[in-house]
Amino acid sequence: MGVVADRSRNRITEFNRTCFTTGTILFRCAGETLGAMYGFRFIKDASELPADAAARAGEFAVNDEGLLVYVGAGNSYTDGETKRLWGTPAVGIGANSYLWGMPITARDSTGSAAVARIGDGNPDFRFGISNNVNWGGISLFMLWDAQVGGNAYNQTNQRMYQYGRSSDVDQTGKPQELKKPVEYYVNLYAANSPTDYFVEDAGFVKLRELSLKYRLPTRWAVPLARLGASGASFSLIGRNLLTFTNYKGYDPEVGSVINRLDSFDYPRYRTFTGSVEITF
After folding, report:
1. Taking the domains of the chain in order of start, what are their residue ranges?
2. Spatial contact of 69 and 223, defined as CB atoms under 8 Å apart
3. Dist. CA 163–CA 143, nearest whole Å
4. By three-state DSSP, how is residue 99 classified?
5. Are 77 and 69 in contact (CB under 8 A)?
6. DSSP string, 223-259
7. At residue 104, does pLDDT exceed 90?
8. How many Å apart are CA 64 and CA 69, to the nearest integer?
9. Residue pair 133/139 in contact by the 8 Å Cβ criterion
10. Closest CA to 88 of 105, 71, 68
11. Which of 46, 97, 178, 218 is 20 to 30 A (C-alpha) from 87?
């Protein structure tokens, strides 16, 4: 059995130019890591409301997705259909307007949508475990690979919100009071701007390889010798067989080592290979 592990850390210590965003989500600035993700974020607590809305914080509630939404005085976020509140006119509070039940983007001191750190593609660490078992003429090899921590930005899912094709948008099976209109998901789509809503845990455990090899026993020595061979074996090899992850996309191993951006990337293929080895 073999065990390997690695942990990588990086930081920009000097950056003699104006900070900027690149690769859709990455932010280049002194003091930041190479995998830092920046974008807009949605408010998750009433304490994050603008100062001019603090006095009416009781009119907001955290919904079933953990997002703060405007519900109005005496209402719950589950009242959208029973009280016909979805789609009602926006309510002005201070300098901002709020649509019923819709997620709220965090604002900075100027009243503009705040750009903040929303994730980091660097994992906490990675490790792998391999095992090679031999019994008689049979060899079994197994390799497990794992990543702990680290984020991926699921832009593929974000784009599907625009067209209503993400499974998240499907309301089938949801309790009636938790169903949401298409506009709710269009609001989260945010014109394809990077937001914290689509930053996901990209940790995983994968069965990277499983192979089985069978060597012909010595009783085959004479027939093989007639062919000029001294031995033969047969192998079956499977790669990328299983993936265990909470990531919603096809594959948590998306993008590059630094830029963990899932933008319609193809997943790693599951492959099966057979081989015949003859020793002369």
Report:
1. 10-39, 46-114, 125-279
2. no
3. 39
4. coil
5. yes
6. HHHHTT-SEEEEEEEEEEEEEEE--SSS-SS-S-SS-
7. yes
8. 10
9. yes
10. 71
11. 46
For the ranges 109-113, 192-196, 220-224, the maximum mean pLDDT occurs at: 192-196
pLDDT score for 66: 96
Phi-psi domain of 82 (left: phi exceeds 0; alpha: psi -120 through 50; beta: other): alpha
| Cα-based distances in Å from 4 to 101, 126, 180 | 48, 8, 46
Positive or negative CA dihedral for 162, 102, 63, 78? negative
Q: What are the Cα distances from residue 250, in Å, to 156, 172, 223, 239?
A: 10, 22, 48, 16
pLDDT value, residue 232: 81
Can you tell me the mean pLDDT for 35-54? 94
Predicted pLDDT at 228? 76
Which residues sit opposite 90 in a β-bridge? none
What angle, rounded to 10 degrees, do the helices at 155-163 and 182-189 form? 140
What is this structure's pTM?
A: 0.88
> Do 115 and 38 touch, CB atoms closer than 8 A?
yes
